[in-house]
Amino acid sequence: PRTLGILGGGQLAQMLALAAIPLGVRVVALEPDPQAGARLCAEHLCVPYTDPAGLARLAKCDAVTLEFENVPLEALDFLEGRVPVRPGRGLLAHSKHRAREKEGLRAAGAGTADFAVIEAESDLAGALAQLGGQGILKTSELGYDGKGQRRVQSDAELRAAWDDLGRVPCVLEGLVPFTREVSLGVARTASGNLAFGPLVENVHRDGILRTSVYTGGDQRAEAQAREIARAVAEAWGLEGLMTLEFFELPGGELLVNEVAPRVHNSGHLTQDGGGVSQFAAQVRAVLGLPLQGWKPPLPTAMVNVVGVDGLDGQALEPDWGAIDALPGTQIHLYHKAHRQGRKLGHVNLTAPDAETLRSRLAELERLIP
Ligand code: ATP
Ligand code: MG
Ligand code: MG
After folding, report:
1. Domains of the chain: which residue ranges?
2. What is this structure's pTM?
3. Mean pLDDT of 95-108
4. Backbone phi, psi, residue 120, to 5°
């Protein structure tokens, strides 16, 4: 059988491994967290990401992919030349650093929020005024789920935010007056074949994705998103799968918010919509297996289950029994201990038509804190 190495052992690695099995692919995951063993249906290399023996084991796989973008570049340096790493170091250098990402997106012809690069004290002066007086300061590296970001409305707030974030390299983005947020996955084989996922509409709460919805009735936005995704995939030499997050402006134009070099939380709904899942698509794209699009045949939605502490400090639990009893639901758990704000699982919902989906989604949301 073929083997696929994965850098990382979180829920994305879990779901990639689950999708790989029926394709006849064995997964080897490098993940230092010993707790990950319970969630991975894979050979678990429980060592640091830069461990030479662990990396040597990955180098024996047919290909290596990743489930998070903050992989140490030393690990990639070791692997490159020994095994195909998809996506590779070049694409990762763009997507793991917000300033380079925005520059790379613009070079590929994609629109982004207006931004200023903040790397030294002297970059602060005048930056906010140039962006219309309000913005979001984001660390260039390591942020996720809204961590490492501060909204600012004055120069004093900007200075305080930069201090608070540790005076590390940042980008200051102008506030985008978006009407909604959408995302789209694109896969590309080493030989240049392209395939796309569904255009998904996303709602965030406190910087964390809450719900994703796919109804299929979004032809214009989907065509635009595909065109941008194709241009970026080709400009950045994508091999494997990546996901673009977009802001939709009032006139319908899409700006790229950020790019994840992998499957994405908003694509989890493809697990249960009746077609190929984003996870199977990533496995196929990385290993060069025949590739097809992964738009679900049915309207589908997803609600994240995020850790919420009650007033007494105890975990607030979703009403699992009622969720199970709602038609068309499927529960997915990540085998993670409860922590406030941590993604612990998600529930997918499938319905015969968009209207039924929306009404059942409202019911489902009431059952999840
Ligand atoms: P993720 O978990 O998606 O990686 P992240 O920490 O990288 O999150 P972003 O995607 O940059 O964060 O921002 C989180 C959310 O904050 C966005 O989905 C959007 O709702 C809001 N947001 C971010 N940047 C802007 C902006 N420039 N203008 C308006 N809203 C924004
Ligand atoms: Mg991000
Ligand atoms: Mg994001």
Report:
1. 2-85, 114-174, 180-366
2. 0.95
3. 95
4. -145, 160
